[in-house]
Design goal:
Number of strands: 0
CATH topology: Four Helix Bundle (Hemerythrin (Met), subunit A)
Helix content: over 70%
Number of helices: 4
CATH superfamily: Membrane associated eicosanoid/glutathione metabolism-like domain
CATH class: Mainly Alpha
Distance between the termini: 22 Å
Length: 129
C-alpha cells in the first residue's frame, strides 16, 4: 500500500514539473491554447500524454495490490511504470524527429508502459479467476 502512495506522490511531482514547464514555454513564446512552436508542442504533448496514461497505470497497480499480488511483483510493476514514464518524457521533450536518438527513449517508454499494462492485466485476471 505504501508503494502506491510513494509512486503516486512521485507522479504528482513529475506532473507538477510538466505543468510548470508547459506554462513557462507558453509565456516564453506568448502562445495560447493551441501551440505552434516545436518546443512548446513537445512540452504540451509530454504533459498531456502523462495525464492520459498515468491514471490508468496507477489504477492497474492498485488492482494488482487489491488482488493480493506478490509484493515483489507489485514493486517490479511500479518500477517499470516509473522508468517507462520517465523514458517517455525524456524522449518526447528532447526528440525533434522520429529518427533522432532521443526518439528511442520515447519508444522505450511506451513499450515499458504497455508492458506494465499487460503484466497488471494478466495478474488481475489470473488471480481473480
Amino acid at each position: 500500500m505504501y508503494m502506491i502512495s510513494l509512486v503516486t506522490a512521485l507522479f504528482a511531482v513529475i506532473f507538477t514539473f510538466l505543468s510548470l514547464n508547459t506554462i513557462r514555454l507558453r509565456q516564453k513564446y506568448k502562445e495560447g491554447y493551441i501551440p505552434t512552436q516545436p518546443e512548446l508542442i513537445r512540452a504540451h504533448r509530454a504533459h498531456a500524454n502523462f495525464s492520459e496514461y498515468v491514471p490508468l497505470s496507477l489504477l492497474l497497480l492498485w488492482a494488482v495490490v487489491l488482488c493480493k499480488g506478490p509484493l515483489w511483483l507489485c514493486a517490479l510493476i511500479a518500477v517499470i511504470l516509473v522508468v517507462g514514464r520517465l523514458c517517455h518524457i525524456y524522449g518526447l521533450l528532447k526528440s525533434e524527429a522520429q529518427d533522432s536518438p532521443s526518439f528511442r527513449w520515447r519508444k522505450c517508454g511506451m513499450m515499458l508502459t504497455f508492458f506494465q499494462f499487460d503484466i497488471s492485466e494478466f495478474i488481475c485476471f489470473f488471480i481473480s479467476v
